[in-house]
Write a structure and sequence with these properties.
By secondary structure, the protein is α+β, with helices and mostly antiparallel strands. It has helices at 23-33, 59-72, 101-111, 136-145, and strands at 10-18, 45-55, 76-81, 84-85, 92-99, 127-132, 150-155, 157-163, 168-175, 194-195. Strands 3, 4, 5, 6, 7 and 10 form a 6-stranded mixed beta sheet that branches. β8 (157-163) and β9 (168-175) form a beta hairpin. The longest helix is centred in the first third of the chain and has 14 residues, at 59-72.
Amino acid sequence: MRLPECGPGERLVGVAVAVPEPYRTELHEARARSGDPDAAHVHPHVTLVGPTPVPRGARDDVDAHLRAVADAHAPFEVHLRGAATFRPVTPVVFVPLLRGAAECTAIERALRAGPLAHEPRYAFHPHVTVAHELDEAALDAAQAAMADYEATFLVTHLHRFVHDGRAWQEERAYPLRGGVPRDGAPRHGRPDAAVVRPT
């Protein structure tokens, strides 16, 4: 994975929906089987804000921004199904969101402001990567292997990740509070779905 350069006093931050178990392990193993070396360094996730250099002194501002966005959005269900690719634009195979893409898009737009303001290189397309920057045969094999994949889970948190120089580490979770009553139970979503929890 090609990461942006950090200047003096900066660190590399990303914001994502972290995929919960058992799907986290399933998708991690699928990426490892594809031969993608990034499998060892990246948690399965739906990117909301890609790798962004942020001044270390802006940490409180970033936290406040993430809390405000999370407070304004409700928990929602993600349904992953099948496999697709961004080829020929980029050498990526991914699992698309059959449900939850609209919610991810709304959150991504809200996040791309304040201390995380930036112009994205590509139009936002929520997905979970399972193979990246491999040769065509390996990408074809990864796409075929995931053709029948399916998973459904309830998203209740946004997650901030930081790159430690080797791998992405989950640093903090921000609960989605929009539409959540005082008892903390979401007003919608399948009660039997796996739930993202901070780890």
